[in-house]
């Protein structure tokens, strides 16, 4: 029996694209060209861009679903992928499908079925466990899609508009699952149409324009720009959160706190709040210049 994989640490490996290009057909236009991208272990990386610019193509290349027309993909961590639209016309129930995938990942049946049930419960879909996939709504199908990706605690999680169709509670649960994966040493690469999705958390942000990938905020060995600070407003327990880094905490009311930290520690604070039990609700994240020394 393989040990329970969720949500423990993973032996992640990096994945990188080097001068990658992708086009469809020998003479088709280039969707992407000259793309360099690093997704190191433990990083949360966002990709932005207008519709039709090649975001999904990029994610499929990183996930290993498509192959580049030129250039190369370096590294191949154990990867899970969530598309925007889940192919629900499969001959399984929700629980049967997840159990089957758990078996593919090496779990014995009893453990696979237990893990599958726990993920369905976590995303509010336990009531549909015995429902055929083809009969599920878009939202319920998407919960199964997310659960199948998280089931085996992947080293690299690739999310292509994975929040689309989820209800509010399930979107919050996916936010927490992302935080758990990166806190455990896994990498997460995602696209989402909502600019506020995981605001303040990504270690790097890239934008696709034309067929090129440009850096908005790059990976530079720290989690935020030097010389800046982050203020997080969060609502939750009446007890002050236990944070693993230097910070300033102000209680705004019985349930709301404001935490100010150097930008280099902001990811640690956000992940601690999201992973708390019960989790804190992050109301706002603001980045601003740090005050001059001596103030």
Automatic annotation (TrEMBL):
SUPFAM superfamilies for the chain: P-loop containing nucleoside triphosphate hydrolases
Domain ABC transporter residue range list: 15-235
SMART domains: AAA (SM00382)
Keyword Cytoplasm in record: no
Keyword annotations: ATP-binding, Nucleotide-binding, Transport
Molecular-function GO term, any one: ATP binding
Protein name (database record): ATP-binding cassette domain-containing protein
Species, as recorded: Streptomyces kunmingensis
Lineage, broadest ranks: Bacteria, Bacillati, Actinomycetota, Actinomycetes, Kitasatosporales
């Amino acid at each position: 029996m393989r040990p329970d994989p969720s949500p423990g640490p993973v032996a992640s490996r990096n994945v990188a694209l080097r001068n990658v290009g992708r086009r469809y057909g020998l003479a088709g236009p280039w969707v992407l060209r000259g793309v360099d991208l690093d997704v190191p272990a433990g990083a949360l990386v966002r990709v932005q861009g207008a519709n039709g610019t090649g975001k999904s193509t990029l994610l499929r290349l990183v996930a290993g679903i498509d192959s580049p027309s030129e250039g190369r993909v370096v590294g191949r961590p154990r990867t899970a992928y969530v598309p925007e639209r889940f192919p629900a016309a499969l001959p399984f129930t929700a629980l049967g499908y997840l159990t089957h995938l758990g078996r593919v990942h090496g779990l014995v049946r009893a453990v696979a079925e237990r893990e599958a049930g726990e993920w369905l419960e976590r995303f509010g879909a336990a009531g549909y466990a015995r429902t055929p996939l083809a009969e599920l709504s878009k939202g319920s199908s998407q919960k199964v899609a997310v659960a199948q990706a998280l089931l085996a605690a992947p080293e690299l999680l690739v999310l292509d508009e994975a929040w689309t169709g989820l209800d509010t509670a399930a979107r919050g649960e996916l936010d927490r699952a992302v935080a758990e994966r990166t806190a455990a040493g896994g990498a997460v690469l995602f696209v989402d149409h909502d600019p506020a999705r995981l605001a303040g958390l990504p270690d790097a942000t890239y934008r696709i324009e034309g067929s090129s990938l440009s850096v908005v905020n790059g990976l530079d060995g720290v989690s935020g720009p030097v010389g800046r600070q982050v203020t997080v407003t969060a609502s939750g327990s009446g007890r002050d959160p236990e944070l693993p880094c230097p910070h300033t905490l102000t209680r705004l009311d019985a349930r709301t706190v404001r935490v100010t930290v150097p930008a280099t520690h902001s990811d640690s604070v956000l992940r601690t709040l999201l992973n708390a039990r019960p989790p804190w609700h992050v109301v706002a994240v603001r980045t601003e210049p740090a005050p001059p020394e001596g103030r």
